[in-house]
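Quick start: read one record
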Amino acid sequence: MNMMSPLKPNANDIVTTAKSRYTTKSYDVTRRINDVDVQVIRELLRFSPSSTNAQPWHFILASTQEGKERIAKSTDGVYIFNRAKIVDASHVVVFAARNEIDEEYLQHILKIEEDDNRFVADPQMLREQMHGARSMFVNMHKDAGDLDAWTQAQTYLNIGQFMLGVAALGIDATPMEGVDLGILDAEFGLKEKGFRSLVVVSLGYRAADDFNAALPKSRLSEAEIITEI
């Protein structure tokens, strides 16, 4: 029997959204994202997939001009060309990755999964299996010396889903690595909290004169990037 999810979207809609979204270069300062959509944005950040459900991330959501100005400090100097994309946007998100995953954090995730009834079929066995599997992957990356890269990769998974999700809401976005991450970490005390900033994503609605909105998409061909076997 073909079991279809009741939430299954139209595939054409997904492709249309992917093709229509773009990196906004200029924002309409008069338009704000409404409260309903802001709550959806929060949910998108929470419900991203991550390897073993490790969720090694933290987000700073700026909804006020003061908050955006604090984030915009990271554009002083060489990245000044990105300042307007932050201060003129409706909302801005800083994506940060966890620096360490210790036993306390692993137990914290396990407790939340337990509270969310993930293990009801066989609580003791399933709890132990989940903890063992997650610990194996975390320790594997610790031993390899690339835990930082792993947590960063998980956070980028979130960013990818987030970009498609906000586009589906009709919200424009600008992902930026062109910011001083050290300034962001210091401004929000991220290092002391066990995180490091990775990317800033501005959100809002494009200005009428945003040149990038009218440009056609340019991507490598299927033949170049896909090998079908």
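DSSP finds ten helices and four strands in the chain.
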